[in-house]
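Batch job 17 of 40 flagged for manual review because the log was empty.
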Amino acid sequence: MMTLAWLAMLILAVTVVSACQATVSSTQLTVGECFNYVNTTDANEDQVNLPSPVDCSKSHSDEVFSVFEYPNASGFPGYEQIGTIQQTRCETDFQTYVGTSWENSSYTISYDAPDEQTWAAGDHQIRCLLEDVKGGQLTGSARGTKK
């Protein structure tokens, strides 16, 4: 009986551990990385969506195709300025990464950029993300697909 109880506890432990997904800060994401958002609780007990990296061959919602520093800013530039820079640069980088313009693609562009609080903490990076144009899950990397 002890062996059966031990086996049941082991199966339960493996199930619980495999259900947990490692999350990272968006500032840790790198070009070519694929991820899904996971709803979790932060240190303040607030609900937040954080990226959980996965192998691009597995189902994922987003892929990072460009990461760059906001240019020449001494202080927080404002959301409009960040939006202008990210749109221009991400559209150009999309064509280089995927091999076609985003207007002719089966992907769409999303962004992850600093807000006033994260800027003050030192995050000046803009991360360009691609997603399925229809909102579905992706499988495989979009790099060089010309789709």
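Reviewer: the log was empty due to a logging misconfiguration, but the result itself is present. The beta strands are 34-41, 47-54, 62-69, 107-112, 125-132. Unflagging and moving on to job 18.
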